[in-house]
Amino acid sequence: MKHLFIATSLSLLALSAQAVDIAVPAAEVHARVQQPNQNLLFVDVRDPVEIMFVGFTDAVHVNVPFLMVDRTAWDEKRGVYKLVQNPEFVSQIKAELERRGLGMDAEVITLCRSGSERGEPSASFLRSNGFPNARYVIDGFQGTPLKEGPQAGMRVVNGWQNSGLPWSTKMNPAKMYRLDKH
């Protein structure tokens, strides 16, 4: 029993260390993107329509959606359109790395709205598909919603947008995922 407890504890510590290892604060990502000759690809993994309404940071190198809105499928439980995984995600990330002369060992940092629904899952997915240095931005672009107070439900703390980092309501068409360019 004691050995089982120790083994379980060590497994949980390893999982916890991995989760911390792949999470990166927004300010750190911004500082690293500004450095010359970085072995880094910074990817916004949101659906471009979401970016159009929420905002964008031109600090990202490219937009490659991890999950995309399927406007033909409704999720009754959540009351939203269903999200489907981009079947070309891995090949599109590989292509972006190759275009920049980077290998699969380059650091790939993903950015989504909150860091949880697409940021962490996309980084984990990339790691399981041969990208050992995939990470994600903690709290994503907009941050986490407040739980209490007059602004409950609003994303007004943490995340890229609320950290004083550069962002805009304007999209950069050269960096956006566009079906007319694939």
What can you tell me about this protein's structure?
- The chain is an alpha/beta fold.
- The protein has a single domain (23-181), classed as Rhodanese-like domain (Oxidized Rhodanese, domain 1).
- Helix content is 31%, strand content 18%.
- It is built from 5 helices and 7 strands, in the order H-E-H-E-H-E-E-E-H-E-H-E.
- It has a 5-stranded parallel sheet. A two-stranded antiparallel sheet has the order 4-5.
- Strand 6 (107-111), helix 5 (119-128) and strand 7 (134-137) form a beta-alpha-beta unit.
- The longest helix has 21 residues, at 2-22.
- The chain starts with a helix and ends in a 45-residue tail after the last strand.
- Residues 36-153 form the Rhodanese domain.
- Pfam families: Rhodanese.
Query: Number of folding domains?
Result: 1
Helix-strand topology string: HEHEHEEEHEHE
> Spatial order of the strands in the main sheet?
1-7-6-2-3
What's the helix count?
Answer: 5
CATH architecture: 3-Layer(aba) Sandwich
What is the helix content?
25-40%
Strand proportion: 15-25%
Q: How many β-strand runs?
A: 7
Looking at the structure, the CATH topology is Oxidized Rhodanese, domain 1
Which structural category do the helix and sheet elements fall into?
A: alpha/beta
Uncertain residue segments: 2-20
Largest sheet: 5 strands, parallel
Rg over C-alpha atoms, rounded to the nearest angstrom: 17 Å
The average pLDDT is 88
Specify the overall morphology: globular
First CA to last CA: what distance?
A: 56 Å
Find the CATH superfamily.
Rhodanese-like domain
Quick one: CATH class?
Answer: Alpha Beta
Organism: Zoogloea oryzae
Pfam family, one: Rhodanese
Protein name: Rhodanese domain-containing protein
Keywords: Signal
